[in-house]
Amino acid sequence: MPIRVQTQDFDLGAEVAALRAGQPQVGAVVAFVGTVRDMNEGAGVSEMELEHYPGMTEKALEDIVAQARARWNIFDALVIHRVGPLRPLDQIVLVAVTSAHRGEAFDACEFIMDYLKTEAPFWKKEQTPHGARWVDARVTDDQALAKWGIRSSNTGTPE
Question: Is 152 among the domain residues?
Fold first, then answer.
């Protein structure tokens, strides 16, 4: 269960290859990569800065992967989340899950991402033409988490 919070970029192909290396039982690999958009809430975004609380963030990510393991029969999961200043097109996050079958891998990957969007201790600040602003979780992110039976601690903002 590799969990990494880092400033440097990652290579999707290399990360997925390493995750499944030497595991002939793997029949499915599902990966999600999140990237920085150039627009959010109607404003241009020139940069996004992500902050975290070292130690607390990694523990939260480990906990959610453990929950995914308890819900689905998965072999492994990888979560890489970047912090620091990022620009449009930059990769922010990678979640990859291996299992024997695609359904469990898809569900576990989506579950982990839904949690990351709402509950993981990351703080995002965008630079827009109107100045810097902090980004809150959206109501739709909270609703996505609720489908897994988890109530978000965020209030969320309307989408």
Answer: no
Sign of CA dihedral 27, 75, 148, 2: negative
The CB density around residue 30, as the number of other CB atoms within 10 Å, is 21
Domain extent, residue 10, equals: 3-146
pLDDT in tens, 27-46: 999 999 999 998 777 778 88
Q: Is residue 78 part of a domain?
A: yes
Give the torsion sign (CA, 65, 112, 59, 98): positive
**How far, in Å, CA of 10 to CA of 53, rounded?**
21
Q: What is the mean pLDDT of residues 152-157?
A: 57
pTM of the model: 0.85
pLDDT in the model for residue 137: 62
CATH number at residue 138: 3.90.1170.40
Single-letter residue type at 108: A
On whether residue 131 sits in a domain, the answer given is yes
